UniProtKB/TrEMBL annotation:
Record's protein name: Xylose operon regulatory protein
Gene Ontology MF annotations: DNA-binding transcription factor activity; transcription cis-regulatory region binding
Residue ranges constituting the HTH araC/xylS-type domain according to the UniProt record: 287-385
Lineage: Bacteria, Pseudomonadati, Planctomycetota, Phycisphaerae, Sedimentisphaerales
InterPro entries found in the cross-reference section: Homeodomain-like_sf, HTH_AraC, LacI/GalR-like_sensor, Peripla_BP_I
Keyword NADP part of the UniProt annotation: no
Pfam families, sorted: HTH_18, Peripla_BP_3
Annotated keywords: DNA-binding, Transcription, Transcription regulation
């Protein structure tokens, strides 16, 4: 049987594209072999223009294509070659299985993280020319409004966008930041924009995260770790999506009439680094309560334990949490416990049984039941998603 020829027109300069490629490689390793073709590296033909995409595709004689959106997308789809498409400018195409993010859920997770940090002022920094940025903004605002936090500021329009360079965008963002109330939690549409915000804050000597907490999307470690201070970011299930891209293409190459519809990329968890590592609440009882919960989350602490620690009545404590954080003390304990479980799942090789004992569950089954109820996914499947997204 002839080995299928698959063209990969997927950029690898960002974490999203690299993780998509890892997923494709994982599928091919167990279901291939496939022969992969990509545009040649720049150094192989210095000073010469790359072969045009359409010419490249025709020369290879491809059986399938996995690609990101390009100016030639419509022409490529018209060739009738089975195609999986990740779009970023135009949301809907016909003639391909599309890769799309659950952007509202991404935005909602970002807002939730900043709410849990005790911020009262919120902002979203994106770019309105991208549909996915707009959807992330809507998810962010909806979650903030649900928490009855109305002061949400938005930056998504820029001067001379066609000719703006990074330096100009940073200066413009600095002008915007200086108009915002402090302290403030800012979510950005991607890690690149989070880096811009961090650099913009430095111009006015604003402290991160004390004055401005910043949260990005994609968990691109090259960007997040090279930025000072390091950036917190939302990890996406891009590697799993890459696996599904290859699986769908495999079916399409065998049965061109097959149409699954869409491959959805979901937010997995937040990788916290320095840029959001703070509690912004300014009420001593709440600050003390949050620190107590965080320091003792691996014990079976109760709401009464928290109230006793801060020396106020349980009723008064509940009222403070409802007014300031829009959630109960019990809900905060539950959220912090879930975050600690995710940290162990993503950063250690501990078994579910070992994690259940550390966190204070009576047995592994109790931990599994709690996790599935809160995340809507089993421990085993979640860890598989986490591990598949790592280098």
């Amino acid at each position: 049987m002839e080995i299928p020829k698959v063209i990969l027109l997927v950029e690898n300069s960002r974490a999203f594209g690299r993780n998509i490629l890892r997923g494709i490689a994982r599928y091919s390793a167990t279901n291939g072999p496939w022969s992969f073709f990509r545009p040649e590296a720049f150094y192989l033909h210095p000073g010469k223009a790359a072969i045009p995409e359409l010419e490249f595709i025709k020369k290879v004689g491809a059986d399938g294509i996995i690609m990101r959106e390009t100016p030639n997308t419509e022409k490529i789809l018209s060739l009738g070659i089975p195609t999986i498409l990740s779009s970023y400018l135009q949301k809907e195409y016909t003639g391909a299985v599309q890769v799309l993010n659950d952007n509202e859920k991404i935005g909602s997770m970002g807002a939730e993280h900043l709410i849990n940090k005790g911020f009262k002022n919120f902002a979203f920094c994106g770019n309105r020319k991208f549909f996915w940025s707009n959807e992330r903004r809507e998810g962010f605002i909806n979650r903030a409004e649900k928490a009855k936090l109305q002061s949400v500021f938005v930056k998504e329009k820029y001067k001379n966008t066609k000719r703006s360079n990074q330096h100009e965008i940073i200066r413009e963002l600095n002008e915007w930041i200086t108009t915002l109330p402090l302290p403030i939690g800012i979510m950005t549409c991607t890690d690149e924009y989070a880096q811009y915000i961090a650099e913009a804050a430095k111009i006015s000597e604003l402290r991160i995260p004390e004055d401005v907490a910043v949260l990005g999307v994609d968990n691109d470690d090259f960007i997040c770790d090279l930025t000072y201070p390091t950036l917190s970011s939302i990890e996406l299930s891009a590697e799993q999506a890459g696996f599904e891209c290859a699986a769908n293409l495999d079916i399409l190459m065998k049965n061109p009439e097959y149409s699954k519809g869409e491959i959805i990329v979901n937010p997995l968890y937040i990788k916290e680094r320095h840029s959001t590592n703070i509690l912004a609440a300014n009420i001593p009882e709440i600050v003390a309560s949050l620190k107590f919960i965080e320091n003792n989350i691996e014990e079976r602490i109760s709401v009464q334990d928290v109230a006793d620690y801060v020396c106020i009545s349980r009723r008064s404590l509940e009222r403070l949490f409802a007014n300031q954080l829009q959630r109960s003390v019990f809900e905060m304990i539950k959220e912090m416990r879930l975050a600690r479980i995710i940290k162990y799942l993503s950063n250690t090789e501990l078994s579910a049984g070992e994690i259940s004992r550390i966190i204070g569950f009576s047995e592994e089954a109790s931990l599994s039941k709690f996790f599935r109820k809160e995340k809507g996914i089993s421990l085993r499947k979640f860890r598989k998603l986490i591990n598949s997204n790592k280098f």
